[in-house]
Amino acid sequence: MRRTVARIGLVAVLALSMSVAAATAPPASADDNVGLVSSVRSDAGLMNYAINLDPNVGESEMASAADLIPSVGGVLLTSYPQLGTLFAQSESASFAPDLADALAKVGVSVHSIGPTRVAAVPESERAVGGATPAAPVAWGAEAMDARGAAEVAVTRAPVTVGVIDSGIDDTQPDLVGRVDTARSVSCAVNGVPNQAEDARRFSSGHGTHVAGVIAANHNDIGIDGIAPEATLVSIKALNESDLLYPEALVCAYEWATTHQVDIVHNSYQMDPWVYWNPTDPGQAAALEAAERAIHRAQSSGLAVIAGAGDRGVDIDHPTTDSDSPTDSMPIPNRSVEGARMVPAQVSGVVTVSSVGMEDWNAEPLRATLMRAERSNYGESVDFAAPGEWIYSTYPNGRIPQIYGYTSGTSTAAAHVSGIAALVKSVHPTLPGAQIISIMRKQAAYEYGRLKAPSDGAEYRGYGFLDAHAAMVFDQASPVIRAVEYRVGDGEWTSLSGAVLPADVVQMRVEASAPVSYMNLDIPGEIAVSTDREDGYFAEPMLLEADEMDLRQVIPDGQEYASLTAVVFAEGLNYDRHADDDATTETTFTVARDPNAVSAPQLAPDPGEDPAPGEPVAPGIISPDLPTHQLPANYAVNLTVGADEATLQRAAAKASSLGGLVLAQYPAFGTFFVQSGSPSFASDLGAALSEAGISFHSVGPTRQAPVLGNEAVMPVGTEGNPVPGAAG
């Protein structure tokens, strides 16, 4: 469905003011129907107008006034039916008398119409002008395939998004049930948290608008949010003047940190400075406090998402600023070299630029996207997301409707916050930094949809995110442990390479969560499976086969048979495109007389110390790793010619140090292991040397930490493995 829309920019929300004076009776000289109306302006510059109808008008008259505004060259900014007042913006010099005449013709009484200021409205507040694209309703959600993501059959863990903004109307039909009012708060007054209902009440429609983008219900009314199952916590931080001061920002982030928030959406930059200078004594203290709060949230596992800003500039190479301070007379050409925007340029914060469709008649899911003219850009940008003509929720009581369009990087950031919530829902054990890493990887899949800038204004970052991809790719998958067997009441022994009697045996195998189903199959012979379960935090799933009958597996005339046990572990995602399932194969032998078949030397139990040989000189050992590179995968290379038994001894040493052996290659004496310990390489090197195992080298395979479904070994607070995490 497509419709032609009025061009309503970010100012459509920012211009909201709750301190509108009540209308009074017109003077006796005013016309009974028209009232006081400003004359034609001498210049046709951009201007905002106050439109006061008769104080006793009803909803129908308010709706008529709102409908007539576009017909005389204006656009509705805000409406206050309880006051009989509307605000509009227009470039037409005759807007006021033209609207008055139009209202008189339909019988709507006017108290007064006139400009709200003397100077023209600056371009940064432009809400009208230029061609109006025939934008599809909620094209951003369509471009990111929010519906496709919702249709993926996957278990979703609960996720909470904290929205630092102007407050959210939790009674909006598309947001019913999405806002946790018990955890919501206002930090808007002096940065002091206040959970009183009147304090939490939204001060403008902006917070409600971005909330809809993030999590509006998929209920076949209004719009579809990116993450419709996410819980929202409203953290009102803007004061009555729509300013976000440092004390309010610190309060907001600390509230999010201490109230089980997973994702933080931050629409606004911190006032009163567009760029904050860490060396300016008048700015340093507030900047330091804000960055401490943001970093504490990040270190507590929260992912922080922010818009890049809407001045159309390169935020990484600022020289001067003439828009600050925002709460008093701006200083022209203030030097801002070395200064930074907050939170957009705080380290670790995800920064989002705004894009629109190159062709507004194109299918959103396949459209080429390009930077919005007013969107900031630069090296700090992480992702580009829909931010032009975004249709979303507005508070109840708004005239003419409770949905509308807004443009800006705050709405672009809201789309990315929704994606972050989706990724978190299928990776609930990962902290924010790893959620962001997965998103950066996935954004590359759709990078080609972003049009290369012809003016050098690089805005693409890592690329463009797709909600459906977030739900089927890079999924958390089960980790299958070793298959074990025993005969009768004997000891459990690794099946790998073992020689079993042609008899009834028991087998077992374990897989760690997330896992919903397991199957153990000896192709052509026997298959056993578990019942279906699910849960991200469940105990490991154990498949036990008490009676594996191997008496008939050896062909007539032969003394033994080589077999393979295939273990399949299904994750929690049942979509056919999902990559969360795991499979392992274990080879073993079944013999009529096990003693007549030589078996390879098995790896000793990790809890036992193999008989040491003479100590040998160590090989090449990598330095200890910093915590931010953990967990890590390591390559362990023994000296050329090492036999399989020696490789198994070395692997046992790695296991005894808390490492998880990932794969072994006896043919050339190499195995790979994952560890969360920063000193794993040096510790293993010392252990191998002491045991008389000669090796060529031990070292990490990558510079970045292991992420996503590859990360198996947790990292402790000091970079050490969490006890009991391995094995």
Q: Can you put this structure into words, describing what you see?
A:
It is built from 14 helices and 32 strands. It is of the alpha/beta class and 727 residues long. The strands form seven sheets. Strands 6, 7, 8, 9, 10, 13, 14 and 15 form an eight-stranded mixed beta sheet that branches. Helix 9 (284-299) links the parallel strand 9 (263-266) and strand 10. Helix 8 (246-258) runs parallel beside helix 9. It starts with 10 loop residues before the first helix and ends in a 27-residue tail after the last strand.
* Total number of beta strands: 32
Overall mean pLDDT stands at 86
Radius of gyration (CA) equals: 32 Å
Low-confidence stretches: 1-31, 128-133, 600-612, 716-727
Largest sheet: 8 strands, mixed
Any idea what the shape is?
A: elongated
Helix percentage: 10-25%
First-last Cα distance? 54 Å
Strand content is 15-25%
Count of helices? 14
Main structural class: alpha/beta
Please specify the SSE layout and strand pairing.
Elements: H1 11-14, E1 36-37, E2 47-53, H2 59-68, E3 74-80, E4 85-90, H3 95-105, E5 110-115, H4 139-143, H5 146-150, E6 160-165, E7 185-186, H6 197-200, H7 206-215, E8 231-236, H8 246-258, E9 263-266, H9 284-299, E10 303-307, E11 320-321, E12 334-335, E13 350-357, E14 369-371, E15 383-386, E16 390-393, E17 403-406, H10 409-426, H11 432-443, H12 467-472, E18 479-480, E19 484-486, E20 493-494, E21 499-501, E22 504-512, E23 517-522, E24 526-529, E25 541-549, E26 560-570, E27 582-591, E28 620-621, E29 632-638, H13 644-656, E30 660-665, E31 670-675, H14 680-690, E32 695-700
Parallel strand pairs: 1-5, 6-8, 6-9, 7-8, 9-10, 10-13, 13-15, 21-27, 28-32
Antiparallel strand pairs: 2-4, 2-5, 3-4, 11-12, 13-14, 16-17, 18-22, 19-20, 19-22, 22-25, 23-24, 23-26, 26-27, 29-31, 29-32, 30-31
Helix pairs in contact: 7-10, 8-9, 10-11
